[in-house]
Amino acid sequence: MTSLLRTVFELSDYPLIQAKSAKEALSMFLSEKPELVILDLGLPDLDGLEVIRKIRGFSQAPILVLSARSEPADKIEALDLGADDYLAKPFSVDELLARIRVICRRLEQTGTLPESDVFVNGGLEIRYQEQEVRLDGKLLHLTPMEYRILVLFSRNAGKVLTRNFLTTQIWNSSWSSDMTNLRVYMTMLRKKLDHRFIETSFGVGYKMVREEPEAGL
User: Fold this and answer.
1) 19 three-class SS
2) Dihedral of the CA atoms 86, 90, 95, 97 (nearest 10)?
3) Ramachandran region of residue 56, left (φ > 0), alpha (ψ -120 to 50) or beta?
4) Which of 85, 67, 65 is nearest to 156 (CA)?
5) Domain 2-110 classification at class level
6) Which of 84, 93, 144, 162 could be cross-linked to 62 through a Cys-Cys bond (beta carbons 3.0 to 4.6 Å apart)?
7) Do the bridges between strand 205-208 and strand 160-162 make them parallel or antiparallel, or are there none, so unpaired?
8) Distances from the Cα of 156 to the Cα of 19, 112, 150, 151, 159, angstroms
9) Where in the chain is the domain with CATH 3.40.50.2300?
10) 37-91, pLDDT tens digit by residue?
């Protein structure tokens, strides 16, 4: 698998550095400062989940997990710890490259706008300073909580946000009542957005997707 990935990345013009252990990976991360981490959870010296935790202690570089662990609980834990995406083995090379492209596009999009600027996603526009949201040019009336949730998604566009992550960010807790409240707010918010932009990642959470312009526009 390692030699195959190296060949694929070289053919795709993605520079690659490899580590054989968690210790080596963390050391190389500090010295090389990669733009993207592709992490296998099955490391010989440390669980890959602990590597995510350590990296998130000092960096927000995107992390794509590749793992033979296919249980939803493993995926949710990795995403909760800060992984940006999770791809279970076996997977196709085309899907891996597609997910890398999504992460790269998100980096480009978030990297070109300052935190206080305007977020635009197709027909959705968020003016952070004015706390104003427009959908297809029309002012959208959101409750303070709906606006807060929408901003959270816009700051993480393209990334799956788990339910635990969302409730912790919003209410600083993850009680069952918080999960119920989240479902209610998500239903109302998605309805106001005409069921665009935010999709469900079943069993995990939600993700804001990029709205592609219509053909010919």
Assistant:
1) coil
2) 80
3) alpha
4) 85
5) alpha beta
6) 84
7) antiparallel
8) 28, 14, 10, 9, 6
9) 2-110
10) 999 998 899 989 999 989 988 887 889 998 888 777 888 888 888 888 888 888 8
Query: With the CA atoms of 92, 97, 98 and 99 taken in that order, what torsion angle do they form, in degrees rounded to the nearest 10?
Result: 100
Is 40 within 8 Å of 81 (Cβ atoms)?
A: no
What letter does residue 122 receive in the DSSP assignment? T
Residues of the chain with CATH 1.10.10.10: 114-208
Q: Where does residue 38 rank: exposed (0-12), middle (13-18), buried (19+ CB within 10 A)?
A: buried
Task: Report the Cα–Cα distance between both ends of the chain, in Å, rounded.
Answer: 42
Calpha distance 78→71 (Å, rounded): 11
Rounded Cα distance between 87 and 75, Å, is 9
CATH architecture of 114-208: Orthogonal Bundle (1.10)
Q: What does the alpha-carbon distance between residue 182 and residue 46 come to, in Å, rounded to a whole number?
A: 34
pLDDT of residue 217: 44
Name residue 202's amino acid. F
Per-residue exposure over 180-213, b if at least 16 CB sit within 10 Å of its own CB, e if not: eebeebbeebbebbeebbbeebeebbbbbbeeee
| CA dihedral angle for residue 202, residue 108, residue 90, residue 18, rounded to 10 degrees | -140
Rounded to an integer, what distance in angstroms lies between the CA atom of residue 20 and that of residue 199? Answer: 36
* Distance between CA atoms of residues 158 and 105, nearest Å: 9
